[in-house]
Write a structure and sequence with these properties.
This protein is largely without helices or strands. It is 6% helix and 9% strand. The protein contains one helix and six strands, in the order βαβββββ. It has one helix at 6-14, and strands at residues 3-4, 24-25, 128-130, 148-150, 152-153, 159-160. The protein is elongated and about 45 Å long. The relative contact order is 0.11.
Length: 162
Amino acid sequence: MDRVNRDELIRRYAAGERNFSGVKLDGDLSGIDLSGADFTGNKMDEFYFERAILKRASFVNTQLAQSCLDGADLTEADLRGARLSYANLRVTNLTNADLRGARFSNTRFDRANLTGANLSGTDLGGCILCEANLTGANLGGSSLHRITFRNTIMPDGTIQNS
């Protein structure tokens, strides 16, 4: 498996490469723009993507447990089947993201923007959504057991507290 450090990833991305599926990456990718990159199927547990720009990036079936995506921009990202248990998604932009079948158990979504996100079939058990925005999101078939809502805007525009 190809191992790539942060500087090499930035160089390859700047040269036009977008497919990093199957590439072993360093754990801190904070603050960099990797829009459109493909990380499909990678094991990226305990990674740092704080303030990273990941618009339209693909994390299909990627393991991101205990990762930090605070302040990241994941607009229109594809996270179908991703595993994000115990992750931090505080102030993360997930507008129109495809999250179908993702596993988010015990994940923090404080002030996260999930406007128009497709969360159908996701596991949100034990998650905390504090001041999150779910306007227009699809929650059909999602597991919502033990979820905590604090001043969260629900898909229909109502405010939920539990």
